[in-house]
Amino acid sequence: MDWQQAENDGLVRLRIEPDELCDYDNLAGDSFNPEVNTDIQPHVLAREEREFIDKINRDGVWGIIIGEFWNGEEWIHADSVWGFVGDDWKDSGYDLNVKDATLAQLTKLEHCECCGRPKI
Fold first, then answer.
1. Alpha-carbon dihedral angle through residues 111, 64, 9, 117, given to the nearest 10 degrees
2. Which of 78, 96, 106, 118 minimizes the number of CB atoms within 10 Å of its CB?
3. Could you tell me the residue range of the domain that residue 75 belongs to?
């Protein structure tokens, strides 16, 4: 079963939620550190950092890719990735990883032969 079919059948979904626990140091890392990025002029790094901060303030930071599957009774969390600015998660590769992990767990789902309820 592929993601699109499972999504159309209401068996999987991706959710996006604000990442309220992110901090700037984790988001930026060494991206704008002139001691690490010696091949980029410090004034260019400073400009890029201002642009990054503007993007964070404008687009927010998100925990996406919360992959969930329907077990017949409730949505079950399969995988997630957090700390994306705006929609940078799209086509990042992480989206595919979460989809694959969610489908893998969906395909392992078993139900009781007697009552049909999902097995834990």
1. 20
2. 96
3. 3-108
Give the C-alpha distances (Å, rounded to integers) separating 117 from 46, 58, 112: 57, 45, 5
97-to-13, 64, 67, 118 alpha-carbon distances in Å: 14, 12, 10, 24
114 domain-assigned: no
Distances in whole angstroms, Cα of residue 16 to Cα of each of 11, 50, 81, 110, 113: 17, 25, 10, 27, 35
Query: Does residue 120 belong to any structural domain of this protein?
Result: no
Amino acid identity of residue 77, one-letter, is: H
pLDDT digits (tens, 9 = 90+) for 1-40: 899 999 999 999 999 999 988 899 999 999 999 999 999 9
Distance from C-alpha of 71 to C-alpha of 11, rounded to nearest angstrom? 8
